[in-house]
Amino acid sequence: MSASMQGKVVLVTGGGRGVGRGVALAMAQAGAAVVVNDLGVSLKGDDAASISPAQQVVDEIAELGGQAVADGHSVADWDGAHAMVQAALDNFGRIDAVVNNAGNLRDVLFHKMTEDDFDAVISVHLKGTFNVSRAAAPHFKQQVSGAYVHMTSTSGLIGNMAQVNYSAAKLGIAAMSKTIAIDMARFNVRSNAVAPFAWTRMVESIPEETPEQKKRVEGLKKLIPEKVAPLCVALCSDAGAKVTGQVFGARNNEIYLFSQARPFRTAHTADGWTPDAIAERVFPQFANDFYPLHKSGDVFTWDPV
């Protein structure tokens, strides 16, 4: 089956740059009309907004012969999220898919992280994903069809340094995606999460102070943002109609399907557990299967292809 988006309308948040820009362009090339949402702010998301990045992508789509409109609302705002969905309805008459890509970063070591650092990232990534998804939900329900793609991250799925806020949001997004898939299945609506590997301004902020950090950054520079887009298009197309509740990764020419948490070791006692018994029996029994404190880079150790 062809992964065409002909006749469909897609909202792409954070669509003015990086991965979002690649997704918006790919959706248009596949035949979709696109609402390109981008607040146009700095990486921290704390300066004046400009719609120009979104408009630039709209202009690119127009040059390709496609249809698109720009939107400058914040995903962190409930009314703003509804406004961007309404923009799809007002301009194109329907909405068929949402790609939740908007994001920000406030990387700080946990013991130095402020409440504002935490709240700012949670508001955009986790609450923003909820806001936009929820705004589209009644329309998906009414038309008995729809697709969500939510951007998660290996920072949440595996772990990373100085990203307590970002990791919490991104793992929360993976869980949110799964539960949306469960809740909306009866309406023929599907929901999947994608962990994108890409060199964008989001990762340009990674420090390069040590040889290890420099080596990591050199590897990240090989990751092409536009390589994430084909998976997003396929998931939103009719060809992805039976794919829901999954967590994928896209890393240049590689696509991953991530495992989801399931129990794999069990300890049982007929008499019930005491703290001492747990310490004496359970911890040693499970010790060989404890996960080490891996960071994302410790797991993905091979060069991207």
From TrEMBL:
The name this protein goes by in its record: SDR family oxidoreductase
PANTHER family: BLL2957 PROTEIN (PTHR45024:SF3), DEHYDROGENASES, SHORT CHAIN (PTHR45024)
InterPro entries given in the database record: KR_dom, NAD(P)-bd_dom_sf, Peroxisomal_Beta-Oxidation, Sc_DH/Rdtase_CS, SDR_fam
Family note: Belongs to the short-chain dehydrogenases/reductases (SDR) family.
Domain called Ketoreductase: residue spans: 8-205
Coiled-coil stretches: none
Transmembrane segments: none
Top-level taxon of origin: Bacteria
